Amino acid sequence: AQKVTQAQTEISVVEKEDVTLDCVYETRDTTYYLFWYKQPPSGELVFLIRRNSFDEQNEISGRYSWNFQKSTSSFNFTITASQVVDSAVYFCALSPNYGGATNKLIFGTGTLLAVQP
Amino acid sequence: EAQVTQNPRYLITVTGKKLTVTCSQNMNHEYMSWYRQDPGLGLRQIYYSMNVEVTDKGDVPEGYKVSRKEKRNFPLILESPSPNQTSLYFCASSRIRGQYYNEQFFGPGTRLTVL
User: Which of A26, A45, B87, B91 is the 20 to 30 A CA-CA neighbour of A39?
Assistant: First the structure.
């Protein structure tokens, strides 16, 4: 089965706290892509990162960092020193077989992050 | 500016009244797709199209129709909308290059309410 699980439905933190959003995926494919998207209250989907299954290096972009571990099928997202503008729904997504014949993208159910001032 | 546009952005309608949500992209993308987003369910694919006149069902196609007569347009048709089709709808497009994934560009979303 191809599946993405985001077990945290909602997280609430106070500004400046660090927060980690969990993502666990399932696929039998050895080649795949993983993604994170942000959906602010305005509703649009904002692409954050894409990770190739062969690239397990962690990535840091400003206050954002991603930890990809194939051994645990996880692709977690950490926001350091959170800000109110980080309040959004965050989606993790999987593209099995590098998209395969259908360019398929499988989304998790999303985590609502609320950052309180 | 490269973009995917959707119209309308917001729509309130009544059960059974046929409606069409338009999607258009200006990037000459071969692939286009429709998703619906519901609380607790994430985004689920409704239909997709690999090129003109080539469409196929996604995971939740019931109650929807699509057409792809032109490369740039991919309208979503609800012939007889029902309240369970109240949702946030996203259109997406991308290139197709062999077997490799190509980044999907998403439209701004259409919030549909069916009373």
Answer: A26
8 A C-beta contact, residue B7 and residue B21: yes
Dist CA A20 CA A16 (whole Å): 13
Q: Match 């369970």 to its residue by tokens.
A: B84
**What is the interface size between A and B, counted as CB pairs within 8 Å?**
56
The pLDDT of residue B104 is 86
Taking alpha carbons only, the member of A55, A101, A63, A97 closest to residue A79 is A63
Which residue among B33, B45, B90 sits closest to A45, beta carbon to beta carbon?
B90
Q: Which amino acid is at B28?
A: N
Structural tokens at position B36: 């619906």
Residue B92 sits at φ, ψ, to 5 deg, of -140, 155
- Model pLDDT for residues A44-72, shown as the tens digit of each residue: 999 999 998 888 888 888 999 999 999 99
Return the bridge partners of B47, or none.
B34, B57
Name the residue among B88, B90, B101 with its Cβ closest to that of A103.
B101
Tokens of B44: 């689920």
